[in-house]
Amino acid sequence: MSEAVTQLTESLLQQFKNETFVLLSTVDIETGGPTSTAISWVYAENASTLRVAIDHRSRLVNNMIENPVITVTIFGEEMVYAVNGRASVRQNPLQDVPFNMCCFDISIEAVRNALFYGAQLSSVPQYVKIYDQRAAEKLDEQVFTAMKKA
Q1: What Cα–Cα distance (Å) separates residue 85 from each residue in 7, 17, 71?
Q2: Is 3 domain-assigned?
Q3: Residue 63 three-state SS
Q4: What's the CATH code of the domain at 138?
Q5: Is 1 part of any domain?
Q6: Are 75 and 131 in contact (CB under 8 A)?
Q7: C-alpha count within 13 angstroms, C-beta hemisphere, residue 69
Q8: Which range of residues forms the domain containing residue 16?
Q9: Judging by beta carbons within 10 Å of its beta carbon (0-12, 13-18, 19+), is residue 120 exposed, middle or buried?
Q10: What is the pTM of this model?
Q11: Whole-angstrom Cα distance, residue 62 to residue 10?
């Protein structure tokens, strides 16, 4: 993928069927500069919309409300994708979760290969949750269920 497209590829849609993490980049409202944060409460609503849930304690919420232009970096099979789009509040606060969260829809404007020329990923980065596994699974289920209902 050398040219930008305006929708997620089929392989990216498949990747979002399982829990994954992305880097969400926003414009910081205090500094005006870029800021990136890894998030895992993200899924593809369809090929042209990503949905994310963000804890209200995060600066990302106000950043996206103030300036909706964002980039989501996705580590896919063999490639790194930069997804440019605009965030809009889907539900605030997100219902049926144990703490104050905001749910955003990201309208995808462009999907580009962000990996330097001549390279490919040898594996997709993985992470482990270092807190109570049962609590993590329960919270993830609550958040994803609420996001899908939003």
Answers
A1: 11, 20, 6
A2: no
A3: helix
A4: 2.30.110.10
A5: no
A6: no
A7: 6
A8: 10-149
A9: exposed
A10: 0.92
A11: 32
| Strand duo 101-113 + 80-91: pairing | antiparallel
Q: How far apart are the first and last CA of the chain?
A: 32
Half-sphere exposure of 88 (CA within 13 A, CB side): 5
- In terms of Cα–Cα distance, which of 87, 95, 94 is closest to 67? 87
Q: Looking up tokens 């950043």, which residue turns up?
A: 63
CA–CA dist 87, 64 (Å, integer): 6
pLDDT for the residue numbered 126: 87
Number of domains, the chain: 1
Asked, for residue 5, whether it belongs to a domain, the answer is no
Domain presence at residue 4: no
Cβ within 8 Å of residue 23, ≥6 positions away: 36, 37, 38, 39, 72, 73
Report the residue count for the chain.
150
What is the DSSP code (8-state) at residue 1? -
**pLDDT digits (tens), the chain, 150 positions:** 556 799 999 999 999 988 899 999 999 999 999 999 999 999 999 999 999 999 999 999 999 999 999 999 999 889 999 999 999 999 999 999 999 999 999 999 999 999 999 999 998 888 888 888 899 899 999 999 999 999
In the numeric block, the tokens 């289920």 are attached to 141
